[in-house]
Amino acid sequence: FLPPHSSWDAAYERELQTFQDIGDAGEIWFGEESMVRIIRWLEKHQVPLDSSVLDIGTGNGVLLVELAKSGYMNLTGIDYSPSAIQLSEKVREKEGMSNIKLKVEDFLAPSAELSGFDICIDKGTFDAVSLNPDDAAGKRQQYVRSLGRVLKPQGFFLITSCNWTKEELLNEFREGFEILEELPTPKFCFGGRIGNSVTALVFQRK
């Protein structure tokens, strides 16, 4: 479902071009409903509007724009793809959202100033890391270590995944994180069996 690592840049290059041509923010990888689900959860739990939020693998930055529109003020987006960050900068400028910080960062080797976040959000980045043909298991472990470094103790981690079940994610994040809740996601039916194509979980750092 997710293109391999090297083609992300190409995809964002295309989106950048499209955005420049027609001012369209391009494909939202996980669709509108996953953004609504995240924002609803934050609102329901009355997460303060000045909480520091990190969008891991921000892509075109549309989630951050929606968070800013919902009143969140302390927003950071990172992506290892410079094209993605350029694209999200253009989206940010078009929307006039000056309170969104954007940085080119590899989450598996985060810089020192990437720390102390109240909330980390991932829609599909852990999936992409998991599909890396080059030592995927090691990269997943590194991801969990990085998350422990950038997220404050008691901080929240909201993950949306297309590749992993709830049980698998619980296992991946068992070191240092506990599950708070599973968020409802659309069900699909295949051959008479009902399953979820998307898993969305909220963890809290211990």
From TrEMBL:
One of its GO terms (cellular component) is cytoplasm. Coiled coil: none annotated. GO terms for molecular function: protein-lysine N-methyltransferase activity. Keywords: Cytoplasm, Methyltransferase, Nucleus, S-adenosyl-L-methionine, Transferase. Residues 52-181 form the Methyltransferase domain. It catalyses: L-lysyl-[protein] + 3 S-adenosyl-L-methionine = N(6),N(6),N(6)-trimethyl-L-lysyl-[protein] + 3 S-adenosyl-L-homocysteine + 3 H(+). It comes from the Eukaryota. One of its GO terms (biological process) is methylation. This is EFMT2 methyltransferase.
